[in-house]
Design goal:
Largest sheet: 9 strands, mixed
Distance between the termini: 51 Å
Shape: globular
Helix content: 25-40%
CATH superfamily: Spore Coat Polysaccharide Biosynthesis Protein SpsA, Chain A
CATH class: Alpha Beta
Order of helices and strands: EHEHEHEEHEEEHHEHH
Mean pLDDT: 87
Number of domains: 1
Low-confidence stretches: 213-224
Number of helices: 8
Radius of gyration: 17 Å
Structural class: alpha/beta
CATH architecture: Alpha-Beta Complex
Oligomer: single chain
Number of strands: 9
Amino acid sequence: MSTAGLVSVIMPAYNRRDYIREALDSILAQTAGRHEIIVIDDGSTDGTADIVRAYGDPVACHSQPNAGIGAALNHGLLRATGEWLAFLDSDDLWLPGKTAAQLAHAESHPQTDLLFGHYEEFVSPEIPAGQLSLGERATGARPALLYGALLVRRATFARVGPFDEKLNLGHFIDWQARSRALGLTETVLPETVLRRRIHRSNTTLTRKTDYRDYLKVMKAHLDRRRAATGDR
């Protein structure tokens, strides 16, 4: 299979038996583009890998001992063969026109390095009413500077390098800061391309102690700026 125009979709997964079918189906439902779907099972114990392997081509499942999201993403990057890279968490969903809108824009605006879109959040249907709330975040579609909304050429991604595996949270914020330091351009399309699921085991809800990773990211970014300008 030719890799020209192929979109490699990397999905890290850890104990996502309840949600991963919907996530995979949302990729398979794309209205345009060719996709290879690379699921990295990060040591799941709930049968997640069995669900993924039952799909067959173009979905591939590769298992590793539990090492965290950054390591899973980097494992997927090593296996990607497509011209393009995209990412989706195993509990979130793409809208059917995500790939179509982004590839069309890339064709007409080849100078753009990173393509994003908008996203919306939703409380997972199995959660009883009132038990989880979007709170002030429930404001409809918003710009999605998130890796689940990203489309980028694999060669462009390689200029920035892999994700920082030492970060439990903030791995994409760190990567994006490095991309901006290199001067890569970003475009946020008006289309809503991503739906983020809110549920009881969201990483950002269950690993709040790892928010210190964001401080590490900010410090590293400031250190790079100082080094580039010669400031002390």
